[in-house]
Amino acid sequence: MERIEGFLQERESKGLLRRLRPASKRANGKIAVNGREFVDFCSNDYLSLSFHPDLIDAGNQAAREYGTGSAASRLLSGNLQLHHGLERQVADFKGRQAGLVFNSGYQANLGIISALCGKSDAVFCDKLAHASILDGIRLSGAKLFRFRHNSPKHLQKLLDNNRDKFENALIITESVFSMDGDIAPLRDIVELKAAYDCLMMVDEAHATGIFGNTGSGEVERQGVTDDIELIMGTFSKGLGGFGAYLACSGKMKEFLVNTARSFIYSTALPPSVIAAGSEAIRLVKREPERRTKLLENSDYFRQSLQEKGLSVLGSSQIIPVVTANIELTRRISGRLYEKGFYVLPILPPTVPRGQARLRFSLNYAHTKKQLDEVIDAITKITH
Ligand SMILES: *Cc1c(COP(=O)(O)O)cnc(C)c1O
Questions:
Q1: Ligand 1 contacts CB of residue 236 (under 6 A)
Q2: Parallel, antiparallel or unpaired: strands 36-40 and 30-33
Q3: Residue 382: helix, strand or coil by DSSP?
Q4: Cross-strand bridge partners of residue 33
C-alpha cells in the first residue's frame, strides 16, 4: 500500500496525476461537462458517425433481432453470420483476401503480435508506436528495436546491424500517428521490408474512413495494399463504433484464429456493435463528403495556426500544438476550457519530456466558425 500512496503523491506533486472526467453528453462535435457545453476537440469520432441515424438504426435492429450480447467467444457459439459478413466487407474495403474482427484495437495488437512473434524473432517498430503495439511486442518475447520516428534511414541501419541474427522479423508502424498527427512513409518502409525479408504490419486506427480514394486508409492512398501482410485498424475512431479489424491473407487469418489469444479467449463483440461497423463501412463509401470536408478543415486549421506563429505538427485531422512546458500547456488548456473549448493537454509520459502539447482532433461536425473562434482564443492566450 505504501507504494501506491507514494506513487499517487509523486504524480500529484508533479502535476501529472490523471483523473477521469465524466461527461453528461457527447454528440456531433460538442461535449457537456459539469452542466456546461463545450466544443469538443478531444474526440476520435472524426467523421461524426457515432450519431448517424443509419448507424443507430443498424445497431438497434441487430440488438432486437440477436440480443444485446454475443454469449460466447467466436470459436464457441458467439459466432454469427453478421461477424462473417463484416469480415467479408473489411476484406473488400481494404482490398485484401480476408478480414478478421477483434474486440478492440488494443486486443488486436496484443493478439496479432504475440501470435506471430516469439523469442527467436525481432520486431522493428517506430518509436512513437501506440502502447498496445509495444505491449504486444513485450508479450511476444521478441527482441524489440525502435527506429526513430518516421525514419526509414534509421530503420535500415537497425536492419543492417541486426536482421541476420534473427529467424523472423516484423516491421510495425502506424500510418497516421495518434500523438503527432503525421503520416508514415509507407513506400520507403515497404522497400526495406522486401530487401530485408521481413513481415510488415501497419496500424490504421487514425486513418480508417479518412484517407484514400475509397476512405479505407493511408495504405490505400500510398498504394501499398498488396505489400503489407497485416493491415490493422479500428471501428472505434473514424467509424464511430467499437472493435478492430485485420485485413490479411486467408492463411494468415486461419493462423490467427487458431493462435491469437485475445481473439480466442474473449467473448465475441455484440451483434449491435458488429452491425454498426458494417453500416459504417457502407457510409464511408456513400458519404465521401464527410472525409473531404474534414481534411479541408484540417488544412485550414493547421495553416491558420502556423500563420499565427504557433508550433504545429502533423498533416492529418489530428493537429498538435506543441507548447513544450507542462505548466504553460495546462494553463492554455484551462483558459480554452473557460472559453468553451474542450482540448486536453497531452503531457509526459504520454509524449516525451519537453514536448507537452495541446492536441486538437477535428471532426466533421465542427464548423468553420468554431475553428475560427478557437484559433482566435489560442492566439490571444499565447501572445
Ligand atoms: C486507439 C488506438 C488503438 C486501440 O484501439 P481501441 O479500439 O481503442 O482499443 C490502437 N492503435 C492505435 C494507433 C490507436 O490510436
A1: yes
A2: antiparallel
A3: helix
A4: 36
Whether 359 lines ligand 1, by a CB cut-off of 6 Å, is no
Give residue-wise pLDDT tens across range 162-220.
999 999 999 999 999 998 999 999 999 999 999 999 999 999 999 999 999 999 999 99
Residue of the nearest CA to atom 5 in ligand 1?
Answer: 105
User: How far is 47 from 41, CA to CA, in rounded Å?
Assistant: 13
Q: Is the CB of 130 under 6 A from ligand 1?
A: yes
What DSSP assignment string belongs to 305-361? HHHTT--B--SSSEEEEEEESHHHHHHHHHHHHHTTEE--EE-TTTS-TT-EEEEEE
Q: Are 298 and 41 in contact (CB under 8 A)?
A: no
- Spacing, Cα 135 to ligand 1 middle (Å): 12
| Helix residue spans in the chain (DSSP H) | 2-13, 53-66, 81-94, 105-116, 131-140, 152-162, 186-195, 218-221, 250-259, 261-264, 271-286, 289-307, 326-338, 368-382
Residue 112 has pLDDT above 90, yes or no: yes
Average pLDDT of the chain? 96
Mean predicted confidence (pLDDT) in 21-36: 91
pLDDT level of residue 324 (50, 70, 90 thresholds) = confident
Question: Is 1 exposed, middle or buried (CB count within 10 Å of its CB: 0-12, 13-18, 19+)?
Answer: exposed
Pocket probe mutation, ligand 1, options 46, 107, 132, max atoms within 8 Å of Cβ: 132
In ligand 1, which atom is closest to the CA atom of 130?
13
| 178 ligand 1 Cβ < 6 A | yes
Distance (Å, rounded) from C-alpha 66 to C-alpha 88?
Answer: 20
Using the atom order of ligand 1, give the atom closest to the CA of residue 44. Answer: 1
Task: Report CA(215)–ligand 1 centroid distance (Å).
Answer: 18
* Residue whose CA is at the smallest distance from ligand 1 atom 3: 105
Average pLDDT over residues 312-320: 96
Q: How far apart are CA 174 and CA 207, in angstroms?
A: 9
375 and 308 Cβ atoms separated by less than 8 Å: yes
Residues that are catalytic:
44, 130, 174, 178, 203, 206, 237
Distance CA 314, CA 178 (A): 10
Tell me what percent of the residues of the chain surpass a pLDDT of 70.
100
